[in-house]
TrEMBL record:
GO molecular function: ATP binding; ATP hydrolysis activity
InterPro entries: AAA+_ATPase, ABC_transp_ATP-bind, ABC_transporter-like_ATP-bd, ABC_transporter-like_CS, Oligopep_ABC_C, P-loop_NTPase
UniProt key word Aminoacyl-tRNA synthetase: no
Biased composition (Polar residues): 365-380
Annotated PANTHER family: D,D-DIPEPTIDE TRANSPORT ATP-BINDING PROTEIN DDPF-RELATED (PTHR43776:SF7), TRANSPORT ATP-BINDING PROTEIN (PTHR43776)
Protein family per UniProt: Belongs to the ABC transporter superfamily.
Protein known as: Dipeptide/oligopeptide/nickel ABC transporter ATP-binding protein
Renumbered residue ranges of the record's region Disordered: 359-388
BP term (GO), one: transmembrane transport
Species of the source: Flexivirga endophytica
Domain ABC transporter: 21-273
Length: 388
């Protein structure tokens, strides 16, 4: 191997491990207001309650969890579309917390969002050309008309739309095409990170794979880093290098995608995976089924200690009820795994040292049940978390 090649390899490896986004203890607490003038704060919705994760340059990080666990709020907080109550977000070495005005606008060029429903995120009165030029103009990327025109054509080619699309309006396209426009719009300002919030869940199943493939193609073409937020385990598994599982505002487990799906270690992740149907009836009959008791507790009144203890079939009294577990690297047989797990007893549960017990639905305090859309995993093991 030549010296130049080996230097390039080293550079690639270093780039792969470079942390692009670093979120430390991010919290977003929404005040609950009451009173005639809504001027009294009577409590808080702890939508995001201590999220710590790092996304490496060039990777796809998948974030999964039940509806209402805080995924979207966290994604928005990263871009400061939602103001964090606490914590720090560092992007490419810059702490975003003190940024305001122009500095924040400049940063948004590097971090873009792709939304679930392109129809509501695209102004229906603007043509595709105007939608794509908007961000480019705002960031001073359209000074040269010829270059701007070439860039528009490049974007349309990249997302698989004809040049004639430029003169049309969003309603003239199908759902899948509209999501292509949403992706082109995010790409138009040449970002480094894209936060894709449920990018395919509003699309027909037949179109979902095309849009996922497109996201992967443009990632390679433009050297992008992704945070993909989804409730669909199949989508996340297919697209992600690493996956984080969120429960009531924070991560309960994080691992590389293959490791997480092969050996889930947190009881909640195990329950999610056990709801994934396996096409082979023999394996399906023999494997572990974990049916969670009760619904997702309300983020306005989260359980004490481990947030999952009210539904956990391996709960150990006292410690789980009172001490909130930290995310830590788990060792199996003395060997560190790729998993970080927020469970006091992950090793003992994995080895079978702690036995599983039934949790009755009444174990969940009814006053802590959520008003927000929830999953009843007892009645519907697929729930809003859908399986591959
Ligand atoms: N502006 C807000 N004010 C008060 N509560 C909010 C606000 N935005 C979100 N929430 C609440 O915060 C919690 C987390 O919501 P969020 O939308 O982030 O969850 P999610 O995991 O993305 O769910 P979904 O997939 O259904 O969007 C929910 O209970 C939600 O009702």
């Amino acid at each position: 191997m030549s010296e130049t090649t080996s230097m390039l390899d080293k550079k690639d490896t270093a780039a792969e491990h470079e942390v692009l986004l670093d979120a430390q203890d991010v919290k977003v607490h929404f005040p609950i207001k009451r009173g005639v003038f809504f001027d009294k704060t009577v409590g808080h919705v702890f939508a995001v309650d201590g999220m710590t994760l790092q996304i490496r340059r060039g990777e796809t990080y998948g974030l999964v969890g039940e509806s209402g666990c805080g995924k979207s709020t966290f994604g928005r907080a990263l871009l400061r579309l939602e103001e964090p109550t606490n914590g720090t977000v560092t992007f490419a070495g810059t702490d975003l917390s003190p940024l305001k005005g122009e500095a924040l606008r400049t940063l948004r060029r590097h971090m873009q969002m792709v939304f679930q429903d392109p129809l509501s995120s695209l102004d229906p009165r603007q043509t595709v050309e105007s939608l794509l030029l908007e961000g480019m103009r705002a960031h001073g990327l359209t000074k040269d008309a010829k270059a701007a025109d070439a860039r528009l054509r490049e974007l349309l080619t990249a997302v698989g739309l004809p040049v004639a699309a430029l003169r049309k309006y969003p309603h003239e396209f199908s759902g899948g095409q509209r999501q292509r426009i949403g992706i082109a719009r995010a790409l138009s300002v040449d970002p480094e990170l894209i936060v894709a919030d449920e990018p395919v869940s509003a699309l027909d199943v037949s179109v979902q794979a095309q849009v996922i493939n497109l996201l992967q193609d443009v990632q390679e073409q433009f050297g992008l880093t992704y945070l993909v937020i989804a409730h669909d385990l199949a989508v996340v598994r297919h697209i992600s290098d690493r996956v984080g599982v969120m429960y009531l505002g924070s991560l309960v487990e994080e691992a590389d995608s293959d490791g997480l799906y092969a050996t889930p270690l947190h009881p909640y992740t195990r329950a999610l995976m056990s709801a994934v149907p396996i096409p082979d009836p023999l394996i399906e009959d023999q494997r572990e089924q974990i049916i969670l008791a009760g619904d997702l507790p309300s983020p306005a009144n989260p359980p004490s200690g481990c947030r999952f203890h009210t539904r956990c079939p391996w709960r150990q009294e006292e410690r789980c009820d009172t001490e909130r577990p930290q995310l830590r690297v788990v060792q199996i047989d003395g060997v560190p795994t790729s998993h970080r797990v927020a469970c006091h007893y992950a090793e003992q549960i994995h080895s079978g040292e702690i036995e599983r017990h039934e949790v009755s639905a009444t174990a969940v305090d009814p006053s802590s049940l959520s008003d927000s859309p929830t999953v009843n995993t007892q009645e519907n093991p697929g729930g809003p978390i859908s399986a591959p």
